[in-house]
Amino acid sequence: MTTTSRRLPSRRTLVAIIAGVAVLALGALAFPRPPQLSTEVTGDAALASRVTELATTTDATRNTLSVALIENGRVTYAGLGADADTEFEIGSVTKTFTSALLADSIERGEVEADTTLGDLLDLGDSPAAGVTLEQLATHHSGLPRLPLETDVLVQTLLSQYRGTDPYQWDVDQLVVQARAAALTEPAVFDYSNFGVALLGQALAAAAGTDYATLIDTRIVEPLALADTSVPSEATNLAADAPTGFAASGRGSDAWTLKANAPAGGIRSTATDMAAYATALLDGTAPGAEALEPRTDAEGLGQIGLAWFITEPDGEGSGTEITWHNGMTGGFASFVGLDRANDRAVVVLSSTAVEVDQLGFALLEGNDK
Amino acid sequence: MIALLYPVIIVAVFAALTLTAVFVPRGAFAAKGRIDIVVSVLNFAAILVLARVLIAWTVLPPVVWLLFVAALAAAVVGAVLRWNSLPLVRTTRPAVRSWIYAGINVAVVVAVLVLVFG
Fold first, then answer.
1. Full-model pTM
2. ipTM (interface predicted TM)
3. What is the DSSP secondary structure assignment for residue A250, as one 8-state letter?
4. Is the distance from CB of A93 to CB of A280 less than 8 angstroms?
5. What are the contacts of A355-359 at 24+ separation with CB within 8 A?
6. Using CB atoms, which residue from B70, B80, B117 is nearest to A16?
């Protein structure tokens, strides 16, 4: 009896230890292994070295990077695990293309800055019908960031967990969402993917075509951006279309965004984005007027048509950077222009971790 | 940066609740039956599975994962050691209610995991 009572606790302790070790072993097997920054260098060695230095001193790991630095019309490329022709999702930098379409459509006389959404889309007498195109492009429409509908919110949340494209609505559904949308304060800056998606679809409607075709004919073809496209649907992607990594390190599906493509659906390369930035700097890009500041952007400085205008060294410092960033499920991007000094930078990353700090540092020529 | 820490805080809260349930014999959060312990450990394990795919490991040092796993291992060890000292279900309420609560809890955990990974 005494022997038995000593053995039972021993056996239980042994089972407990085995169970604990099994959990530790399983946990070790599942140890997170986020993507590491590639050491495979392409392009300019000095720029690549600088990018490596900056990327490894910021507080995140990344997979591949492709960078273009434009100075007085001369473009220098560098890549880590990617080259100047590697395709990336540019995410919300797409909004600068959409705003360029707006500026271009105004120049063509198709629309005006104060044309309302209701003039172009079937929004009935809903609050969104009275929103102007300029308000949409400057994020002063009062529309929420995303439609505040249960299916949208659930889909967005689930997609974040599953690493899938959350934007699965076609143009008709987008219009239905707009009809149901309530507005907050239109005079206040409030970043809205929903608003820019509607802007792009409204401009397409004004031109009598679809958004992808409008981007093709009015920006991609004039600037000869051979590897820039708006797939809009996953089925339009090439079988080997690159995908990236979420911030967790998990692989992410490609984002094509369907009707929300005007807010973030463009895929491009450093070569094409450098050509775009160069054309913006010299004023030859269609809709380059979009760069001009129009109103305040609450803590981000000023905003033009989608473009933010910020003084990174503090207000009154004299150095204005005109920029936009972007992020999808597996990619991050940054385009910044120092218009006064004829400089620009493009940063494309295949990991969904912000690259703004890297972009600003390259543009300013220091480590800030 | 702060937003990146929210999942970490949630995991830490579940770790604290589970370790309390397993190792603290009395009090509101103490396990009062084997079913309580199983549910508590299961919830923590499920949260860890979600954390594995949600936490920004590109930003947060992955070694933090080992701390979470060590907490779960400790909870499992504690659960095994306490097993024989606990009744199957707590005696302070009808057994059927404990089974219903446990069933709902397990169903919710399975549903969330299926939604995320299914």
1. 0.88
2. 0.90
3. -
4. no
5. A355/A62, A355/A65, A355/A325, A356/A323, A356/A325, A357/A54, A357/A58, A358/A51, A358/A54, A358/A55, A358/A58, A358/A334, A359/A323, A359/A325, A359/A334, A359/A335
6. B80
DSSP state of A35: P
Structural domain that includes position B90: 2-117
In angstroms, rounded to a whole number, what is the distance separating the alpha carbons of residues A143 and A57?
38
Chain A interface disruption, residue of B57, B65, B112, most A CBs within 10 A: B57
Shortest CA gap B55–chain A (Å)? 5
Two structure tokens written together for A147: 């439609």
d(CA B69, CA A23): 7
Residue in A19, A27, A351 nearest the CB of B69: A27
> Best-predicted range by mean pLDDT among A109-113, A151-155, A298-302?
A109-113
Q: Give dist(CA A363, CA A360) in Å, integer.
A: 5
- Total structural domains within chain B: 1
Looking at residues B79-103, what average pLDDT do you find? 91
Where in chain A does DSSP place strands (E)? 41-43, 65-71, 74-80, 88-89, 267-268, 295-296, 302-303, 308-310, 321-327, 332-338, 343-349
Residue ranges and CATH numbers for the domains of chain A are 41-364 (3.40.710.10)
A353 → chain B, closest CA residue: B58
The encoded tokens of residue A73 equal 């019309």
Distance CA B70, CA B53 (A): 18
For residue A253, the model assigns a pLDDT of 95
Q: Do B21 and B37 form a contact (C-beta atoms < 8 A)?
A: yes
Question: What is the arrangement of strands in the sheet containing A302-303, beginning at the earlier edge strand?
Answer: A41-43, A74-80, A65-71, A343-349, A332-338, A321-327, A308-310, A302-303, A295-296
Asked whether A190 and A278 are in contact (CB, 8 A), the reply is no
CB contact under 8 A, B54 and A24: no
What CA–CA distance (Å, rounded) separates A252 from A249? 9
Measured over all CA atoms, what is the biggest interatomic distance in chain A, rounded to whole angstroms?
Answer: 98
Question: Which residue type is seen at A323?
Answer: W
Minimal CA separation from B51 to chain A, in Å? 9
Residue A355: both structure tokens together:
């690259």
